[in-house]
Structures are given as C-alpha cells and as structure tokens.
C-alpha cells in the first residue's frame, strides 16, 4: 500500500506541473523583442492601447535599441493621451534611426480617420 501512495504523490506532482505549464504558455509564446512588438501591434489594432504599451515595453526591455518598438510605444501613448511620454518615446525612436510609419500606426490612424465619418 505504501508503494501506491508514493505513485499517487508523483502523479499529483506531474499533473500540477502540467497545469502550471499550460497556464504559463501564453507568455512563453513571445520570446523575442519582435514577438512582443508584433503582439503590441495586434493589441493596438484592437484598440487595447494600454496592453499594447505593456507589450512594447517588453520588446524594449529585451532590445532597448529596437526603434520600431519605441515608435509604436510613442503612438500608443499618444492615443491614450500621454503626450509627454509619447514625445519621449518618439524622440528615442528617432535617435535610434526610425523613419516612417509602422504597421500599428497606419492601422490606428485609419481607424481614427473612419471615426470622423
């Protein structure tokens, strides 16, 4: 009977590990700065700007020289009315050599344009 109890404990530990692994999977999907930037773009396209800013911050944390993530963060900050933070992010993007519009910016600006019609 002792053997069966030990097996039961091992099974419970394994199941606990599996459940924990499944719960952590959504975060593990974004492993690179580009992955987090893409996630931010997707969230921003859905109007989830605060979540997009968090994703851009994670991209920047992984790669502080990622100009596009800085630019996207600036645009998302602009959309939520954080002008001074937005300007700082735009300045950093420019300092890092960012030129032009990103996918997130184009999508968001189109959505804003349609709101006026």
What Rg, in angstroms, do the CA atoms define?
Answer: 21 Å
Please work out how many helical segments DSSP would assign. Answer: 6
- Number of structurally distinct domains: 1
Order of helices and strands: HHHHHH
Percent helix: over 70%
User: Which secondary-structure class do the elements indicate?
Assistant: mainly alpha
> What is the rounded distance between the termini?
74 Å
- In the predicted model, the low-confidence regions spanning at least 5 consecutive residues are 113-117
Strand content: under 5%
Average the pLDDT over all residues and give the rounded result. Answer: 78
Shape: elongated
Biggest pleated sheet? none
What is the CATH H-level superfamily?
Answer: Tetratricopeptide repeat domain
Looking at how many chains there are and whether they match, the oligomeric state comes to: single chain
CATH fold topology: Serine Threonine Protein Phosphatase 5, Tetratricopeptide repeat
How many strands? 0
CATH architectural type: Alpha Horseshoe
According to CATH, what is the class? Answer: Mainly Alpha
Keywords for this entry:
single chain; 117 residues; mainly alpha; Serine Threonine Protein Phosphatase 5, Tetratricopeptide repeat; 6 helices; 79% helix; disordered C terminus
Explain what you see:
The protein is mainly alpha-helical and 117 residues long. Helix content is 79%, strand content 0%. The chain has six helices and no strands.
């Amino acid at each position: 009977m002792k053997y069966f109890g030990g097996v039961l404990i091992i099974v419970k530990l394994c199941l606990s590990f599996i459940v924990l692994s499944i719960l952590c999977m959504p975060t593990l999907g974004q492993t690179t700065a580009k992955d987090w930037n893409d996630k931010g773009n997707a969230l921003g396209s859905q109007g989830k700007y605060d979540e997009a800013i968090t994703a851009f911050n994670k991209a920047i944390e992984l790669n502080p020289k990622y100009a596009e993530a800085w630019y996207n963060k600036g645009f998302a900050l602009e959309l939520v009315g954080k002008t001074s933070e937005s300007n700082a992010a735009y300045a950093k993007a420019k300092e890092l050599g960012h030129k032009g519009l990103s996918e997130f910016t184009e999508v968001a600006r189109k959505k804003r344009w349609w709101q006026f019609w």
